[in-house]
Design brief:
- The complex is a heterodimer of chains A (about 240) and B (about 425).
- Chain A contains eight helices and no strands.
- Chain A has about 240 residues and is mostly helical.
- In chain A, α6 (about 185-210) crosses α7.
- The longest helix of chain A is centred in the first third of the chain and has 62 residues, at about 1-65.
- The N and C termini of chain A lie far apart (about 110 Å).
- With about 425 residues, chain B is of the alpha/beta class.
- Chain B folds into two domains: about 10-290, Spore Coat Polysaccharide Biosynthesis Protein SpsA, Chain A; about 305-420, no CATH class.
- Chain B is about 50% helix and about 10% strand.
- Chain B has helices spanning about 10-20, 35-50, 70-75, 80-85, 110-120, 140-150, 170-185, 200-205, 220-230, 255-270, 275, 305-315, 320, 325-340, 345-360, 365-370, 375-390, 395-410, 410-420, and strands at about 25-30, 55-65, 95-100, 125-130, 155-160, 185, 195-200, 235-240, 285, 285-290.
- In chain B, strands 3-2-1-4-7-5-8-10 form an eight-stranded mixed sheet, with helices on both faces.
- In chain B, β1, α2 (about 35-50) and β2 form a beta-alpha-beta unit.
- The longest helix of chain B has 18 residues, at about 255-270.
- Chain B is globular, with a radius of gyration of 22 Å.
- The chains are: A mainly alpha (about 240), B alpha/beta (about 425).
- The interface between A and B is large, with 30 and 49 residues.
Chain lengths: ~240, ~425
């Protein structure tokens, strides 16, 4: 009796191991496909990156284009990276993601493909969100610098605080858009921004519209007067 | 490739066909100048009648879309009895007028561009341009700006005004000394606003490619002067007396104006690099007219405001300046801000300007940001100059400016090195 039970147990365990091995073996082709897709993606990405960098380099050599508008845009956003580097990074990772998506599509239908499809399908959204966040930081830097410079040149004492507030506002807006793109906390974000925006609008309306009409008018008039009159200097 | 010319309306084309060729042309750019333009037109008509009675002349008003009576006044203004005004003049007929709106981005440069086009179409031999907000213009200005070209073979005449020591401080601290050090010509008012030039040079100005940038606005004056000196044209100056003009347009405040002027100056440094590299020292430029002392309007300077703006910038703007200024310059700025009496020395100031030019060349920041961030530093330099000269005479102030100009010349090698070090 005990021997029969032991045999059965052994058979069951062996069977389970066999299924496990089969399962692992069935994944091997899929893994190889994914690895091959990844390899192709990396190689294509490297090739594309090299070609794009070469094209940008040649364009600059031919046109003597020290002052490319793309470089100015990056500088404006506070990024010191060269345009070819940015183009290289974006093109490389885009190629890798596209190759992975193609690789997953080539798999046999099954649980693995479903899981990987979901994961790979999420990547574009993730990339989109990351891109939004990066653009947000760039735009924020641009706005911070503009506000800082404008406020300092206007002699406003709150220049630095104002610039920081503008930066936070812009980055927060882009971060919210990025989270919304990922589908995270959508309703909370909408509510938070509605309340925040409404509060600011109401505060400004009360402050400038009712509470300090004369002060606001005086301030605006003063600011609209030419710098020349304020300092007494005639510059040109 | 031939440059794109500014379009002319059918009426203007018709007027050009009717007038044919002219000897002299006077251009007046305008925008809502009803208070002063009548006086300017009278001075021009009287000046042409007195000094160029036998020349075929035309007055061109290039208007930026005035909503007041500016254009109407140009059209209707009559001089009155020229015999009374000019005493000995023998007027010969009326002066032809072309009144036209200009096309392009709003600004003085766009207005001038249309004047250049009309001058080219009319094959004018000599031209001059006068600001429409002038209160001190006299008929003699027309002679002083045109005669060196008509009679003496000069191609460009810059104005020389008697100005208060604190009038024209961008000119005094940046534009004059830098232009002088770069191109070796001592043109004291390179952005004075009223110029004489040959028809040939007008056609050359017209060939410029970028009329969408600062040259279309306040950059036009330094563009004209720099083009003339960099292309080795025969240049002169004419003493015009005092320059008194209407209070400035409130919309044209300091930062944009400085961005337009200085970015044009830096852009032309790139364009004419071969012309200015290797030039050392400077030489005087001939002066026409009879210099005389003039009672000048006082310029009450609010030193406290200049100082507070500089000090605030020294606290707030280093993150921006770090993009194009060296640690040495940043330290000098900091040191000056913390000193009990602000003193931004010539050496530090010139290095700041040179590093800004090099930063502009390598596009360390967008032009508006880079030059906009120089504004408080410039105010600091002006404050230093005011503190140094307010107790002295006007002559002493001019001597101090000459020292600054010489310091620029002395630093020319460093300017070239910094410029050349740009990758």
């Amino acid at each position: 009796m005990e021997t029969t039970m032991g045999k059965n147990l052994g058979q069951q365990i062996a069977l389970a191991f066999e299924r496990l091995v089969d399962a692992f073996l069935s994944v091997v082709p899929a893994a190889l496909v994914i690895l091959a897709a990844l390899l192709v993606g990396v190689l294509t990405g490297l090739l594309l990156r090299t070609l794009l960098r070469l094209a940008i380099y040649l364009r600059r050599r031919v046109r003597g284009d020290e002052a490319s508008s793309s470089r100015q845009l990056l500088r404006a956003a506070g990024l010191k990276a060269e345009p070819e580097r940015v183009v290289g990074i974006v093109s490389f990772w885009t190629t890798v993601v596209v190759s992975l998506a193609v690789g997953v599509n080539a798999l046999e239908p099954g649980a693995l493909r479903s899981v990987l499809s979901e994961a790979v399908g999420f990547l574009p959204r993730l990339l989109g969100a990351v891109l939004l966040a990066v653009v947000g930081v760039g735009v924020g830097a641009l706005v911070r610098r503009s506000v800082l410079l404008g406020a300092v040149n206007a002699g406003l004492p709150w220049a630095r605080a104002g610039a920081r507030a503008a930066y936070v506002l812009v980055v927060a807006s882009f971060a919210a858009a990025a989270l919304d793109h990922l589908g995270v906390g959508r309703s909370i974000l909408v509510a938070a921004f509605s309340i925040f925006g409404g509060a600011i609008a109401l505060t400004l309306a009360l402050a400038f519209g009712l509470g300090a009409r004369d002060l606001a008018r005086g301030w605006l008039e003063k600011k609209l007067r030419a710098e020349e009159e304020e300092s007494g200097i005639r510059h040109v | 490739m031939s440059p794109r010319l500014p379009p002319l309306s059918a009426e203007v084309a018709e007027a050009i066909a009717r007038i044919g060729k002219v000897d002299v042309l006077v251009g007046i750019p305008s925008f809502n100048n009803e208070r002063t333009i009548g006086h300017v037109v009278r001075a021009v008509v009287a000046g042409l009648a007195r000094h160029f009675p036998d020349a075929k002349a035309v007055l061109v008003n290039s208007d930026g879309g005035s909503t007041d009576r500016t254009r109407e006044l140009v059209e209707r203004t009559e001089v009155g009895s020229l015999a009374e005004i000019l005493v000995d003049a023998v007027p010969s007929g009326t002066t032809a007028k072309i009144i036209t709106p200009y096309r392009g981005i709003p600004g003085k440069g766009s207005a001038f561009r249309t004047v250049f086009r009309i001058a080219a179409e009319l094959e004018a031999k000599a031209c001059c341009v006068l600001d429409s907000d002038l209160r001190s213009v006299t008929p003699e200005w027309v002679e002083l700006l045109l005669e060196p070209i008509v009679t003496h073979g000069y191609e460009f005449v810059a104005p020389l005004y008697a100005r208060h020591r604190y009038d024209g401080t961008i000119t005094n601290t940046i534009v004059y000394p830098l232009t002088r050090a770069l191109y070796g010509q001592q043109i004291r008012q390179p952005i004075g606003g009223d110029f004489g030039f040959s028809g040939d040079l007008a056609a050359r100005f017209l060939e410029f490619e970028d009329w969408e940038g600062p040259v279309a606005q306040y950059g036009i004056d330094i563009f004209m002067t720099t083009t003339a000196v960099a292309e080795k044209r025969k240049v002169a100056q004419s003493f015009l007396g005092a320059k008194i003009h209407d209070p400035k347009d409130p919309g044209s405040d300091l930062a944009p104006m400085m961005v337009q002027v200085v970015s044009t100056l830096f852009t032309l440094m790139e364009r004419y690099e071969k012309s200015w590299k290797g030039v050392s020292g400077s030489e005087p430029v001939p002066v026409f007219g009879f210099p005389y002392a003039v009672g000048l309007e006082p310029v009450p300077v609010k030193l406290d405001r200049l100082l507070s703006q500089y000090r605030q910038a020294a606290h707030d703007l280093p993150p921006i300046w770090e993009s194009f200024l060296s640690k040495r310059s940043l330290a000098a700025i900091r040191e000056a801000a913390h000193a009990p009496a602000l003193a931004l020395g010539d050496e530090a100031w010139i290095r700041i300007v040179a590093e800004a030019a090099a930063g502009f060349r390598r596009r360390a920041l967008p032009p508006a940001t880079l030059i906009g961030s120089l504004v408080p530093l410039y105010l600091g330099k002006v404050a230093t100059f005011v503190a140094e000269t307010e107790a002295g005479s006007a002559e002493e102030a001019e001597i101090r400016l000459e020292e600054l100009a010489l310091a620029y010349e002395k630093a020319k090698g460093e300017i070239e090195t910094l410029w050349g070090a740009t990758p």
